């Protein structure tokens, strides 16, 4: 364990290269998704451009899955994802709904659990809320348990019933 005030490699790299905090989070999410998918037996392919709507492609058993990766911290016992793309440029911050036909799966990496959760965007409306801990009021109806989303969904199955409550 480094002593108090010790500099890390990240500190020096950030100063010399001009790293961007949100980009680092995205890179960590993609790295965690890559490792998780390989551990699950998938081959993982990366696009040759950063302009693709997906961050990686998982392949197994003759099926390709286009995957967009999102890094989301837990808040109030849940991981929430708005199904929108947001970016900033010199004209301000912009947001648009994601193109649900351009990707098959969204992988949500949560640093608080160090887990990846996989959803099909077509199964959800404008957002998804995955519970990591039980609700304080004990509600179970229409609650999506994050633990139920640890596996890559089969893109050939019908949409989910949004009542996955068991872990």
Automatic annotation (TrEMBL):
One of its GO terms (molecular function) is nucleic acid binding. InterPro entries: PD(D/E)XK_Endonuc, tRNA_endonuc-like_dom_sf. It comes from Mycolicibacterium conceptionense. Transmembrane segments: none annotated. This is PD(D/E)XK endonuclease domain-containing protein. Residues 1-25 are annotated as: Disordered. Residues 20-151 form the PD(D/E)XK endonuclease domain. It holds the Pfam family PDDEXK_5. It comes from the Bacteria.
């Amino acid at each position: 364990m480094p002593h108090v005030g010790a500099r890390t490699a990240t500190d020096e790299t950030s100063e010399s290269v001009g790293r961007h905090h949100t980009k680092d989070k995205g890179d960590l999410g993609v790295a965690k998704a890559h490792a998780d998918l390989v551990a699950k037996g998938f081959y993982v392919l990366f696009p040759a451009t950063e302009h693709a709507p997906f961050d990686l492609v998982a392949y197994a058993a003759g099926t390709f899955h286009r995957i967009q990766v999102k890094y989301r911290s837990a808040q109030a016992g849940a991981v929430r994802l708005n199904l929108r793309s947001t970016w900033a440029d010199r004209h301000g911050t912009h947001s648009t709904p994601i193109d649900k036909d351009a990707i098959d799966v969204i992988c949500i990496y949560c640093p608080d659990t160090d887990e990846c959760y996989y959803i099909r965007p077509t199964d959800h409306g404008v957002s998804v809320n995955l519970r990591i801990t039980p609700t304080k009021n004990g509600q179970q109806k229409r609650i999506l348990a994050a633990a139920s989303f640890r596996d890559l969904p089969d893109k050939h199955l019908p949409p989910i019933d949004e009542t996955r409550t068991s872990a």
